[in-house]
User: Which sequence fits this backbone?
């Protein structure tokens, strides 16, 4: 029932464009599919380019509630460094997009997390949207371990202060 159809692809300048036409010209107009395909391919070649949309921004450290590190003093607050879970040289994300497309990057990383935090623990996500559609997520991990502040840590620090 779809009538005359055509599916074709064009590869040029490292771009692959695919067209699928349904009901493109009935018996008297069978040649319409060629004109329609040419218009679509010309439009695609003119308006779409590959672009690396990865934003190589340094991630902010995350505060750790009730967290301590070995060298911390009483009254200081602990922070864990946030890092991507992929190697730096693999941080490329290319999309075939037009100038009208809108790219949004959302850093879904909390400002504060609860102790304890294990090294390598996932603490957030970086999300890439193309025209409000989620395209990719990169996990964000804790680079270092943060222990929980507890009674024994406080007792140890008091002992150090008063040299008991």
Assistant:
């Amino acid at each position: 029932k779809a009538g005359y159809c055509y599916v074709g692809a064009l590869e040029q300048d490292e771009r692959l464009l695919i067209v699928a036409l349904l009901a493109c010209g009935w018996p008297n107009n069978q040649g319409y599919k060629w004109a329609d395909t040419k218009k679509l391919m010309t439009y695609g070649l003119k308006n779409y380019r590959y672009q690396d949309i990865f934003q190589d921004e340094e991630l902010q450290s995350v505060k750790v509630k009730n967290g301590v590190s070995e060298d911390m003093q009483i009254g200081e607050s602990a922070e864990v460094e946030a890092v991507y879970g992929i190697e730096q040289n693999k941080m490329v994300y290319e999309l075939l997009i037009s100038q009208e497309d809108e790219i949004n990057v959302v850093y879904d990383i909390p400002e504060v997390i609860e102790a304890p935090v294990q090294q390598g623990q996932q603490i957030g996500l970086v999300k890439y949207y193309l025209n409000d559609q989620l395209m990719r997520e990169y996990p964000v991990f804790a680079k270092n371990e943060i222990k929980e502040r507890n009674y024994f840590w406080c007792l140890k620090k008091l002992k150090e202060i008063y040299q008991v």
The two ends are 90 Å apart (CA to CA). Helices lie at 32-47, 151-162. The longest helix spans residues 32-47.
